[in-house]
Amino acid sequence: MGNLKFIFSRLLGAIPTLLALVCLAFFLVKAAPGGPFDMERSLPEEVEANLRAAYNLDDPLPKQLIKYIGDVLQGDFGPSFQYRDFSVTELIMSGFPVSLRLGATAILVALFFGTLIGAVAALNQNTKIDYVVMFFGMTGISVPNFVMAPLLILLFAIFLNLLPAGGLGDGSINNMILPVAALAFPQVAYIARLTRGSMIEVLGSNFVRTAKAQGIPMQYIVLRHVLKPTLLPIVSYLGPATAAIITGSVVVEQIFGLPGLGRYFVQGALNRDYTLVLGVVVFYGCLIISFNLLVDILYGFIDPKIKTNR
Amino acid sequence: MRLKVLTLSLLLFVFGCGKKQEIDCIVGNQDVIVGGKTGQELSSTQVFRKNNGTEPGTLDPHRAEGVPASNVLRDLFEGLVMEDPSGRYIPGAAKSWVLSEDAKTYVFTMRDNGKWSNGDDVKADDFVYGLRRSVDPSTLSNYSSMLYPIKNARDIVLGKKDPETLGVRSEGPRTLIIELEEPTPYFLSLLTHATTYAAHRPTVEKFGAQFTRPGNLVGNGAFRLEEWRVQSHIKLARNTEYWDNKNTNLEEVYYYPLDDTNSSFKRYRAQELDFTETVLAEQLPWIRQCLPNDLKISPYFGSYYYGFNNTQPPFKDNPKLRTALSMAIDRSVITDIILGAGQIPSYSLVPPVKTFKAVPANWAEWTQEKKNQEAQKLYRASGFSKENPLEVEILYNTSDNHKRVALAIAAMWKQTLGVKTTLRNQEWKVFLETRRLKQETQIYRAGWIGDYDDPYTFSQLLHSENEMNHAGYSNEEYDELIKLAATKNAGEDRLNILRQAEKTMLEDMPIIPIYFYVSQHLISPRVSGLEGNVMDHHYSKYVRILKTEAATNNGQP
Amino acid sequence: MSSCEKNKSNSLLSDAWRVLKKNKAAATSAWVMVVMGLMVIFGPLVSPFALDQTDWYQISAQPDLASGHIFGTDDLGRDLFVRVMHGGRISLMVGLVATMVSVIIGVSYGSISGFIGGKTDAIMMRVVDVLYAMPFLFFVILLMVFFGRSIFLIFVAIGAVNWLDIARIVRGQTLNLKGKEFVDAARAGGATTTRIVFKHIVPNLLGLVVVYVALTVPQVILVESFLSFLGLGVQEPMTSWGALVNQGARQMETSPWMLLFPGMFLATTLFCFNFIGDGLRDALDPKDRTRESG
After folding, report:
1. pLDDT the model gives residue B18
2. Which residues of chain C are within 8 Å of residue B26 when distances are taken between CB atoms?
3. Which of A81, B78, B85, B97 is the most buried (most CB within 10 A)?
4. Cα–Cα dist C274/B199, whole Å
5. Residue C286 has pLDDT above 70, yes or no
6. What does the alpha-carbon distance between residue B518 and residue C21 come to, in Å, rounded to a whole number?
């Protein structure tokens, strides 16, 4: 019962957060120089006036804001200024699955390989394996993804001709492999380092040392007693990891030509597509808030169990 | 320690490999025989994959703007007039036309077998509808000013008259009559533009703003719209109802919106693209060595120049300073070394077209040394020197090539005159606004691609009342000449007036001409049927994909 | 401070110093950074070429000791060694200054919030929660896109968006310290809140701050390189390692040295800061492993 109350109160608390997000993004976007209708051929004044009226751009700002919020609550993010034949809602609905597929796969890959590699390193501390892993970890953190992505393309798509160099293709896994690799690589490195550090600490704890002294086999110790406390810091890293994946997706989607939200956002910002930019920011804000909520709940479940075990 | 070893080995790699000067050409499997034995055999998959640059803002022909949208629309619709692969005007939806004696009325005879993609006949009325829709202010078209040569068009766009008063009418299903305000020698080339395409009225009325979606869009071109995923691809499929369908080879055309030239280059190398929209200057040497047959360069009807803000100091009323800056640029370095695609140094605004040759400034033929000396003289005469240098800002829209050119010019001015230049770049939309306001600009980058194959499209840019005159150039004599040219019939008389206008303008030097464009594409050898043309218009209906098979005699990568 | 507290903080610091010195990776990294710092400051003075000196006849030239271009040239014929050195100045400056901006904002905010406590604290932390939910890098992009591209704005934008982490940590630590005796002593002595916060609490946060700085600088350098990827980073003729790496990545098949040299410097710097940060964290706060601020 206490859990439900917790969830509910956090949900309630999320609403003002969301509102503040929308307002901040809205005013930031509106304050920008360069209008959505600027193009090479100047518009006759009458035509421009018509355009502005059609998009409600002459109303006072607070009025525009309220109208916007009202529309959003009904799922209407407005028309896109850039892609005039599409609404922002449509674009978000078509772009989100792409980014989701990319991002979720990347996180899962990062979690899986990161914890695996980190655990291997921790269990073989200060041996060659450990050094290799640590070096790999450092590389992952120091090579930006806009360097990793072209490298992967050169190697696998051009020289070896194994994988596509970009695009959605027919939606098959082949087109996902390189983008996911480029996106996940830095996170695999972080999580590996994190896991290694955390596991080393747990392995050095009194509880584990006692268990070892009692002759309990290592595998049993690792599985039953070491795993959960090791994973705790990783769970709390999930939030920043997701944020990093979202920003990394901007680069990866651009380089591989994938029609995801990251790409839409950057193109929108550079082309003054107000509604699209706002829509993506609000959408991602909701996502992050929900995700943080989930992580909080997850943390709550893991934590009390450990306390009783010890 | 490990770090040091790694560093050393990397250094050795770079320096060690630095001995040879040739470029390593690891291009992937490019050793293929194209076209079979005859060289013309067709592939069994007739699919054409093009990189198209930016995503089109809309596929509504009357609201579309920009080259990417025009490229796609050219395959979806057919205007009254069409072009053959070399750019010559040929009948399109209209099979013939007649111009009246006073050169103000065209009578078009439509084809008997023109069809929309849903089977309906293409009638003259469809073009009446299309043109009226184009000028109708409620369509919110950005390009309606192109139609001003048509009678009443200007008043309709400005809301003073109804669209029905447009000087366009049909007499029966096969006859279309267009009345012009003045004789307009380039009018036919306007009819290849999307703004003048017909529209299928029942579709537009039924679907409204959604009529451009796949499944809804009805066009009279060689292809129909099958898929459209924003920032991913536009897929076209053969339009079986098209009147010339039996000569269409392609089954599918893909347009990819890759504005990152580097990504598109990689996709091309991985053989996922057959056609790139442009080429990065830095990669030209490698391409010339490793992919020489794929590089297709051809003159393009466009002019690249820097404009001065002539409405404010330091350039207001200062022709000496402006000329000095123009002379101090070594244009051959820019075209041959910085850009290297075969661009042509320019000393005037209007590029050569048909019988009109470029009208260079009289110092164009001097050696660069002599130009530099004269520039220094003029610079000092304007009151500047090494101790009192000119501080100036170049504004350009974000792009690699623009940046390189700007950096090169800044370096040249610094070296020859001692000018201190700062560079500022802005995204396209902001740049347009800043440029138009003429408040902050001093020197700005400009490029203009001709809308139709006539010098007038460039000359009218510097008329004092033209909103595109961002230089703020105002010269009565120039304005008079431009107005006079607009009233004349086609012919050498008219061209001489335009030549005179160029000369007048060049004495004032309100802009710095830099080069005339070339179009640069990477086109796979499998693609046949396309030719370079000065407007860079390519129709997919001419494309044939040739058969390729691996070469059997060598296994060289 | 009374002599008792002085001794306490001294022994804490000297303990930390001992642990740090033993950490070979951190020590080596520190020396490497010193060398790097000297290189970027004095390198350009030693080279015969200027930052923006173009040479049309040496475009994209390979590294060649004979011509004096020991790192080669870029696609405008500019000497790469000089540009990497200048780029280093900018990258390190951005890293340090932007981090300092976020430290100043974050430490002030967090310590005040933690110290005052109660409702004010709740509200202030709420604001942090709200801001935390924003996809913050998107906001940096928006700021850069909309308000121009001065290097000053880069410092402010990154710093202003990055302060949340340090604010939270600082607040936690302040709550911790608030209960300690020396605070009560100071209050009994009649010190005002501001004085207590800035004279007594903040100095005790030094350890945390130093770790944070060491681990954040590499992040900030990467953020600037991300902005360069989008065309929003430092503008010509200034350059940064991020901008150089971007350019190099685009030409890695044709001119690999353009990527290799700036890339090496960038990677080495990031390595070193991370090692130093890890080392500092182990030395000063061994329990705090759960905060991987990466």
Report:
1. 38
2. 253
3. B78
4. 63
5. no
6. 63
The answer to whether C62 contacts B425, with C-beta atoms less than 8 Å apart, is no
In this predicted structure, what is the pLDDT of residue A259? 92
Contact B230, B55 (CB under 8 A): yes
The pLDDT score that the predictor gives to residue A171 is 75
Q: What is the mean pLDDT of chain C?
A: 79
Of C63, C235, C236, the CB nearest to B18: C63
ipTM: 0.82
Helical H runs in chain C?
3-22, 24-46, 80-116, 118-133, 136-147, 151-178, 181-188, 193-195, 202-204, 206-229, 241-250, 257-284
Nearest C-alpha in A relative to C146 = A32
Q: Closest chain B residue to C70 measured between Cα atoms?
A: B15
Q: Is the CB of residue B427 less than 8 Å away from at least one CB of chain C? A: yes
What are the structure tokens assigned to B103, written together? 């050169």
pLDDT at residue C47 greater than cutoff 50: yes
Query: Could you give the CA distance from residue B317 to residue B432 in angstroms, rounded to a whole number?
Result: 24
Judge contact between B178 and B68, C-beta under 8 A: no
d(CA A83, CA B320): 46
φ and ψ at B342, to 5 degrees? 95, 20
Split at pLDDT 50, 70, 90, the class of A22 is confident
CA distance B145 to chain A (A): 8
Interface of B with A in 426-455 (CB under 8 A): 426-430, 432-433, 436
pLDDT at residue number C48: 85
Q: What is the pLDDT of residues A205-242, one digit of tens each?
A: 777 788 778 887 877 777 777 777 788 788 878 877 88
The yes-or-no verdict on residue C274 having pLDDT over 80 is: yes
Chain C, nearest residue to A274 by Cα = C142
Q: Cα distance from A174 to chain B (closest Cα, Å)?
A: 14
Residues 467-496 of B with CB under 8 A from A: 467-468
Q: What is the dihedral of CA C150, C153, C158, C161, to 10 degrees?
A: -150
Sign of the torsion angle spanned by Cα atoms C12, C17, C18, C22: positive
The whole-angstrom separation of Cα A171 and Cα A258 is: 11
Nearest to B430 among A34, A44, A161 (CB): A34
Contacts of C145 in chain B (CB under 8 A): 427
Main-chain phi, psi angles of A227, to 5 degrees: -55, -55
What's the pTM value of the predicted model, to 2 decimals?
0.86
Q: Check B262 against A94: CB less than 8 A apart.
A: no
Structure tokens at A4: 């439900």
Least Cα separation, residue C54 to chain A (angstroms): 26
Could you give the strand order of the β-sheet that contains B344-345, starting from the edge strand earlier in sequence?
Answer: B344-345, B511-522, B295-308, B443-449, B391-397, B420-426
Q: Smallest CA–CA separation between B45 and chain C, in Å?
A: 31
Tabulate helix, strand, coil % of chain B (nearest 5): 35, 20, 45
What pLDDT score was predicted for residue B79? 94
Q: What is the pLDDT of residue C1?
A: 45
Contact call for C230 and A266, based on CB within 8 A: yes
Q: HSE, CB side, 13 Å, CA atoms: give it for residue B340.
A: 19
Q: Say if the Cβ atoms of C130 and A21 lie within 8 Å.
A: yes
Given a cut of 70, whether residue C15 has pLDDT beyond it is no
pLDDT of res. B1:
42
